[in-house]
Design brief:
- The protein is of the alpha+beta class.
- Helices cover 43% and strands 17% of the residues.
- The protein has a domain at 97-204.
- It has 15 helices and 15 strands.
- Strands 12-13-14-15 form a four-stranded antiparallel sheet. It has a three-stranded mixed sheet with strand order 1-10-11. A three-stranded antiparallel sheet has the order 2-4-3, sandwiched between helices.
């Protein structure tokens, strides 16, 4: 069996994920396509991930792609997580993942409405959704608070987890808006405040056209394998959130090449992707929490020493801000209270690496300006460095 070692995997990662300086992109769409999709649970991550891979980092370019020409779109999709991707990728992700997630979101909300015991049902929800869309139309864009002020039904309170220790009373506005967004009937627009804010305005949108789910899964799997291969069946299943049969069928349709990994596992690459790639120039990167280069595989042993995990991950398995050297995760970074970027190396990488990491931190500080970044998911090392 053809063998692709861990060093080759790290070389591929650096080049294909546009982290090597000579391979950086000139457009935000090219960045998103290179990694299939950017994690968007934390609003700042999209900007930090994109700018790390641009030859000329530019917050304005990311904002234009998200809110003006809408060449990037957000979908609640893989693993019930919010991702940002190009319009070329979105239809396949919508059919292969997002529609199923949207259906589950709707059923979850309907269950909570029924459990409340006040006669709120599917018909009530449909009416509130229609009122919300109608209220949004003349405004063009509106915050959740503005929509709640315009639609009294959005101010309805329900009891969730009744009869349990977690019982609490909550408003339905955020849940109704989440369901509308998951269905593709509204989308996030320019937020209140800076690019780091998660207080989004909302604007009307059109759902993506339906297509064949099996074909959509094949397209997503092929794109993912080009960017993340060699990788295992388990990696693809984890990243997509598909079932075993769906994952295997998608891989079989691609007819990938089988390879042996250093871990002893069987990996896959797209057909014809066996050539050895030459090492690039030395490179360093400071990537944000949940960056796709750190969240692309279930098994990250080729890039992440096991003794670094406790410092860099939270209890739910979310990775925090990371420092990279030639395709490996060697430390973490944070922003101090005065805005200075600080980092700690968990591996001894030598003076050349330390100097390049410092240069990359300076490059990052320059385009960030006065912005302040606090990851949504705090990790032990990030908290220590912030303090």
């Amino acid at each position: 069996m053809y063998h692709i070692d861990d060093e080759q995997r790290r070389i591929r990662l650096g080049r294909r994920h546009l982290l090597v300086p000579s391979d950086r992109a000139t457009s935000v769409v090219a960045v998103a396509d290179a990694v299939v999709a950017l994690h968007a649970t934390d609003a700042a991550t999209v900007f930090l991930s994109a700018c790390a891979r641009l030859t000329a980092p530019d917050v304005g370019a990311v904002e234009r792609a998200l809110y003006e020409d809408v060449s990037l779109v957000r979908l609640l999709s893989m693993r019930n997580t919010l991702f940002t991707m190009s319009r070329a990728v979105a239809p396949a992700v919508d059919t292969s993942n997002a529609r199923r997630v949207a259906a589950k979101e709707r059923q979850r909300l309907l269950k909570q409405l029924r459990e409340d015991g006040n006669g709120l049902d599917e018909r009530w929800l449909a009416d509130v959704e229609q009122q919300t869309i109608a209220a949004l139309a003349p405004r063009g864009r509106a915050t959740g608070s503005e929509l709640s002020a315009a639609v009294p039904a959005l101010r309805t309170k329900i009891t969730v987890f009744p009869g349990t220790k977690q019982e609490t009373v909550q408003g339905v506005a955020s849940r109704v808006i989440r369901v509308l967004a998951a269905d593709g009937r509204i989308r996030r627009d320019l937020p209140r405040g800076s690019w780091t804010s998660s207080q989004f305005r909302w604007t009307a949108a059109e759902p993506w056209p339906a297509s064949d789910p099996a074909q959509a899964r094949v397209e997503v799997a092929r794109r993912w394998l080009r960017s993340y291969g060699p990788a295992t069946e388990g990696d693809l299943k984890w990243w997509t959130g598909w079932g075993v049969r769906e994952t295997r069928d998608a891989l079989a349709a691609i007819a990938p090449e089988e390879v042996l990994l250093d871990s002893g596992a069987v990996g896959w690459v797209v057909p014809g992707d066996l050539a050895v790639e030459p090492p690039p120039e030395p490179w360093a990167a400071l990537l944000p929490a949940l960056d796709p280069s750190a969240m692309g595989w279930a098994d990250r042993t080729f890039q992440l020493p096991s003794n670094h995990r406790a410092a860099l991950f939270d209890r739910s398995g979310n990775i925090g801000p990371t420092v990279w050297w030639n395709g490996g995760i060697v430390g973490g970074w944070a922003q101090s209270t005065n805005g200075e970027l600080v980092w700690r190396l968990l591996s001894d990488v030598g003076k050349e690496a330390s100097d390049l990491i410092g240069s990359e931190a300076s490059r990052m500080s320059a385009w960030m300006g006065d912005a302040r970044i606090t990851p949504r998911f705090r990790t032990p090392l990030e908290r220590e460095l912030t303090a």
